[in-house]
Amino acid sequence: MRATVDHYAALGVSSCATAGELREAFRRLAKEHHPDKNPNADATTRDRFLQVVRAYEVLSDSARRSAYDKDAGIFRADRPRPTTPDGMAYEAFDLLLAEHADEALDMFAAFLEKTGMTVADLDLPKHLDYNDARDCEFLLAEALERSGRWHAAITLYELTVTRERRRPYFRKFMVEIHDRLKTLYMRRIREAAAEGVWDATPDEALEPVFDLGVSRRGRAAYYKSLAQLLLATEHDYSDAARDALVSALELSPKITGVKKLCHALHIEHPVHGSAPMESTGAQ
Q1: Of the residues 6, 145, 157, 174, which has the maximum number of CB atoms within 10 A of its CB?
Q2: What's the burial of 154, exposed, middle or buried (CB within 10 Å: 0-12/13-18/19+)?
Q3: Cα separation of 132 and 90, whole Å?
C-alpha cells in the first residue's frame, strides 16, 4: 500500500533531501505557519502547520523515513549523492542513524577528501548543528572502532573528550566513552609491544588512561595488566614489565593474581614481608 500523504511536498523538498535540508525547510515553514506567529490564523493555516510538523516528525527519524519511503516506492539508491560539505556531513550522519555504517564511512571519507580535513583536525560543527555534530563524532568513532580502524577511532573519541571538557553535552555518558578509550589505549600498547616498537616507560604509556580518571586501585590494575601484556610478547620488555609491577604493588600491596608475575620478574611480594625491589627503568 502506497503512502497517501506526501511529507516531502509538505516540507517543499524533494525525496532526495538530506537531513540538513529537511531541518532547514522545517524551521522556515514552522516559523512561517506557527499559530503564535499568526494570531489571526484560520483553520487552513493551522492545518498547514500540523502538516509541516507531522512531515518532519516522520522524515527526521531515519527508521520512520525508511518505512515511509518504502511505502511510497522511494529508494535510497534513487537519491543522488550530496556534493556540498554540509550535505555530505548530514548524509553521513543520516546513514549512521540508520545503522548503515559502511555507507556512512564511505561518505565520511568523501567528506574528508572534499574538505581537505583529516580525522585529527575534523571540525563537524562547521557543517552540522552543534548537537548533531557531537552525536555524529561519537557515532563515527563507534563505526570506525567496529570496522577495525581503531587508531582513527581513538582520535575521534579524544576529540569528543576535548569538546566535552569545553562544553558538556554527553555528561554521564562520557563514562562509557572514557572506558572505550581506555580499552583502545591498552590495545595500542599491546600492538606496539607485539611489533617490538614500544619504547615508553609504564608511566608514559598509561598517562592517557590515567588522565581520563582512574582510582588508586584501578591504576594498580592497569600497571599489572601492562606487566602481563609486556611479558606475553616475544620481545624483551622485562625491565619495563618489572617497573609496571612494582608500581602496581606500591599502589596496592594486596593486589591479587600477581604471584606468577612476581616470580617471573624476581620481585618479592610486599605482603610476604619484603618491599618490592627498586625499579630500573624501561628499555
Answers
A1: 157
A2: buried
A3: 9
Write the pLDDT tens digit of every residue in 168-211. Answer: 999 999 999 999 999 999 999 999 999 999 999 999 999 999 99
Residues 6+ apart with CB under 8 A from 245: 223, 224, 227, 258, 261, 262, 265, 267, 276
DSSP string, 23-55: HHHHHHHHHHH-GGG-TT--HHHHHHHHHHHHH
Higher pLDDT, 154 or 36: 154
Q: Are 148 and 102 in contact (CB under 8 A)?
A: no
Residue 221 phi, psi dihedral angles, 5° rounding: -65, -40
Options 1.10.287.110, 1.10.3720.10, 3.40.30.10, 3.40.190.10; CATH of 1-79: 1.10.287.110
DSSP secondary structure letters along 75-141: -GGGSPPP-SHHHHHHHHHHHHHTT-HHHHHHHHHHHHHHHT--STT--GGGTS-HHHHHHHHHHHH
Give the C-alpha separation, 134 to 150, whole Å.
19
**Run of H or E residues at 193:** helix 174-194
The Cα 189–Cα 205 span in angstroms is 7
| pLDDT, average across residues 119-141 | 93
